[in-house]
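tool=predict chain=A
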Amino acid sequence: MYSPRLFWSRATLSDVQLRYQFRATPTPGQRIRAARVFGCKRVVWNDALAQVEPVKASNKLLGSPGRRLSEGPYQRVPTSADLSKVLVTQGKKTRARAFLADAPVGVLQQTLRDLDRAWKAHEDSKAGRRKGARIAPPRFKSRKDNRQTARYTRSDRWSITDKGRVRLPKIGDLKVTWTRSLPSEPTSVTLIKDRSGRYFVSFVVDTDPAADVLSPIDGDQGIDLGLSRFAVLADGSHIASPRYLRRAEKKLKKRQRVMSRKQKGSRNREKARVKVARAHAAVADARRNFHHQWSHKLTSENQAVFTENLSVRGLARTRLAKSVHDAGWAQFVSFCEYKAIRRGRSFVKVDRYFPSSQVCSACGHRDGPKPLNVREWTCSNCGTWHDRDWNAGRAVRAEGRRILAAAEPPTPGPGASRRQRRERVPAECT
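tool=predict ok
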């Protein structure tokens, strides 16, 4: 039985959207109709990109240094509404694009809005208005792309039938494996076909943040992430490393070897590719379930969770790249963060340059750097013997407590005004 994925959309305490994903089982006819919807969506995306990209390139060239305004005026970039009128409404009336009637209008209009957001994300990233890595401009989609999606909004009049099936226009009633109930009425649904040929329906629902907040408890936890042991906790316990990719390597190598012997472009190669994709999907699903279980346990049993802000991208460029990707630290930390926010817990990331392996957790003395092969050491100041990972977990917890105490505003005294008492932000919200 497939366990649904739960995604955190926004981390504000006033408005929280969650995404619930369930496995769908379409019939052969529904698969064909879904492929038509995916194809129409791809054509509209490519047609719109072909009109917008030259305009943006021309405007960029005119705005470059050394260019005179007399060389040509700036062109107006067509909006999603303009493109919808030309590519969807008028396009259906032409012989070349008459097949667009096989897809709901709302899905095609949502595709144009997604293209607008993709351009905005690229431009904000290039201008420094968006944090994180640089985002590339939108690219043309190929029919060979193995992952396909189609988002249905309320304008498409999709619904959930009395028999528990999801009715999607132009596709039909999809059989869904419900493993939990939805907390509220969904605002949209996305039909997803992954690389291994599996189908999912993903619902976006609005939830009440107060309903998920747990009552405060005593206790906190520091986490030191590693490879030999997935995580060592400050209380002396540890989480064993499951190493899902390493355990599946033999099967993956065998299936990849079979695929490499098939002729490119043949149906047998496509069948072999699907088998490889399913093996990778099984590894990813098992790892995700492992991260969900432990992030749920840690955020439920502790009032505060502290972990290191590791540079996973940098570590993935070393000789330990495969083991780093197999551990999935970034996904685990992300799960802990959004679950802590939902439950009203505190979550702190300690700076990656904090010397957790050098500081003695007993006296606070910094003992100096140590190579990775040194797993145990004795403090030169107080003589305390330390396990390297366990001591790092305690040091991360101590540093997290210090950061949390510095971020929490002081409690207003008896003489404080009513406004000061009302504006005090609880520590769980920081």
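The chain is about 40% helix and 20% strand. Residues 220-429 form one domain.
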